[in-house]
Design goal:
Number of strands: 8
Largest sheet: 8 strands, mixed
Helix content: 10-25%
Order of helices and strands: HEEEHEHEEEEHH
Number of helices: 5
CATH architecture: 2-Layer Sandwich
C-alpha cells in the first residue's frame, strides 16, 4: 500500500488534530463493501519501553472464522503517546503489516476506535479513509461518549452518544462479560458494524479477527518472529 496516512501534516500535535478534523469529513457511514470472504484484524503492541512499535495483522475466513494468515511488523516508534492521536503513533506499522499480508482484505476490524473519537477519527476511521478500505473499530473501553445500561445477554447493545449523536454501540458480545465499544470506521453503517462483530464472535469476548491480532500483538514470545 503506497499510502500517506498523514497528508500535509506538519508534525505538530495541533497539526495532527487539525488533520483529524479534515479527514473525518471523508468518513462514509454507509455499507459499501463486496461480499465478505476475508476479514483482516489488526492490533498494535510495543517493545523496548515503547521505542519499538509491533503491529500484528491477520486474515480470517468469514465462513469458518479460521486464521488464514498472520504477519508481525516492527518499526521504530515515531511519536510519543498523546491521547486522541493514537493513529499517528500506530498507523505506520499497521500499514506495513497489512502490506505484507498475502492478499487485500474485504474489510478490516481494528482494535481501537472508529468514529467514537473526539474528532470523529479514531484509528479505524483514519485507516479506512487513508486506505479506502471498509473498517470497523472494536475497542475494549470508551474513549468518548456515554451509553445506557446494556443487557447481560449476547447481542444486547446500547447506543453510544456524544454531543447528541450516535457514534457507536456498547455491545455485549458474550453473556455477562463487559461490553465492547463498536463503531464504524469507514464504508460501514452503525448497525452493520455491530452485526459483523457479532457474526465474527465465537466463545470469546473479542471477534476472531481482533482476537487473533490482539493475541499476536501482545505476546512477548514473538520477539523472535
Amino acid at each position: 500500500m503506497m499510502i500517506d496516512p498523514f497528508p500535509g501534516w506538519d508534525g505538530t500535535i495541533a497539526g495532527a488534530r487539525k488533520l483529524q478534523s479534515e479527514l473525518a469529513r471523508h468518513v462514509r457511514l454507509v455499507d459499501d463493501f463486496p461480499p465478505l470472504e476475508i476479514i483482516a484484524g489488526v492490533d498494535v503492541g510495543f517493545e523496548e519501553n515503547g521505542t519499538i512499535t509491533r503491529a500484528a495483522a491477520v486474515l480470517v475466513d468469514v465462513k469458518t472464522l479460521a486464521l488464514v494468515a498472520d504477519v508481525v511488523v516492527r518499526l521504530p516508534t515515531s511519536m510519543p503517546y498523546v491521547p486522541g492521536l493514537l493513529s499517528f503513533r500506530e498507523l505506520p506499522a499497521v500499514f506495513a503489516a497489512l502490506d505484507r499480508l498475502p492478499r487485500a482484505p474485504d474489510l478490516v476490524m481494528v482494535d481501537g476506535q472508529g468514529i467514537a473519537h473526539p474528532r470523529g477519527l479514531g484509528i479505524a476511521a483514519h485507516l479506512g479513509v487513508a486506505s479506502h478500505l471498509p473498517t470497523i473499530g472494536v475497542a475494549k473501553s470508551i474513549l468518548v461518549g456515554h451509553h445506557a445500561e446494556v443487557g447481560v445477554r449476547r447481542g444486547d447493545r446500547a447506543e453510544l452518544i456524544h454531543n447528541g449523536a450516535v457514534i457507536g454501540y456498547a455491545l455485549r458480545s458474550k453473556d455477562n462479560v463487559r461490553p465492547l465499544i463498536v463503531s464504524p470506521g469507514n464504508r460501514v453503517s452503525l448497525q452493520t458494524a455491530c452485526d459483523l462483530v457479532l457474526k465474527c464472535t465465537t466463545r470469546y469476548r473479542l471477534p476472531e479477527p481482533t482476537r487473533f491480532a490482539d493475541r499476536i500483538a501482545s505476546r512477548r514470545d514473538l520477539k523472535k518472529r
